[in-house]
Specification:
With about 150 residues, the chain is α+β, with helices and mostly antiparallel strands. The protein has a single domain, classed as CBS-domain (Roll). The chain is built from 6 helices and 5 strands. The longest helix is centred in the C-terminal third of the chain and has 27 residues. The mean pLDDT is about 90.
Length: about 150
């Protein structure tokens, strides 16, 4: 069974975060600079406080005609964040994402965010795993038949 740790081995443990007291404008600036759709939000102790996504920005700032420079991240972030750990099965991650309509799951260790797994990460990982399994089956079949025929 594949786990979050397996996905992170291929993806890496890069995490993009912002303090809850920063402005939404700064959060969007960072998202653009890092080419990500969400940032983990941390408190002053670097513990997980929430997550802010492009969706939060659009729904809670732009559509409410609020100024991104005047709104703090903590005012619009998603606070009730589902998290996972290294040992969480990838199937559980996919279930959480599909049931809760989440695209990002912070990976935590002792309530500190250490990585983020996205729907795209899981998709790439599953496709890669299936491709390797198909290659192994093809090799087995061709070896059993004595070649390509």
């Amino acid at each position: 069974m594949s786990t979050v740790a397996d996905v992170l081995r291929s993806k890496g443990r890069v995490i993009y975060s912002i303090n809850a007291e920063r402005s939404v404008y700064e959060a969007v600036e960072q998202m653009v600079a890092c080419d990500v759709a969400a940032l983990v939000v941390t408190d002053d102790q670097s513990e997980l406080a929430g997550i802010i996504s492009q969706r939060d920005f659009a729904n809670k700032v732009v559509l409410c005609d609020r100024s991104p420079k005047a709104v703090k991240v903590k005012e619009v972030m998603t606070q009730d964040v589902m998290t996972v750990r290294d040992e969480t099965p990838t199937s559980t991650c996919m279930d959480i994402m599909s049931q809760k309509d989440f695209h990002h799951l912070p990976v935590i260790d002792r309530n500190k965010p250490v990585a983020v797994v996205t729907a795209g990460d899981l998709f790439k990982f599953v496709v890669s795993e299936q491709s390797m399994a198909l290659e192994e089956l093809e090799e087995f079949i061709f070896d059993e038949q004595g070649g390509e025929g």
